[in-house]
Amino acid sequence: MADWICELLDDPNQLKTLGNQARKKVLERHSIDVQGPKIAALIKQVSS
What we know:
3 helices, mainly alpha, 0% strand
C-alpha cells in the first residue's frame, strides 16, 4: 500500500482524478438531497 501511495504522490493527475471520483461518490451517497428524505422518513417513523 505504501508503494501505491508513493506512486500517487508522484502522479498529480492520478491523484486529482481519484480525489474527484471520491468527491463524486460522497456527494451521490451523502448529499442533503439523498439523505434528507431518509432522515425525514426516519423522524416520521419514530414519531408515529
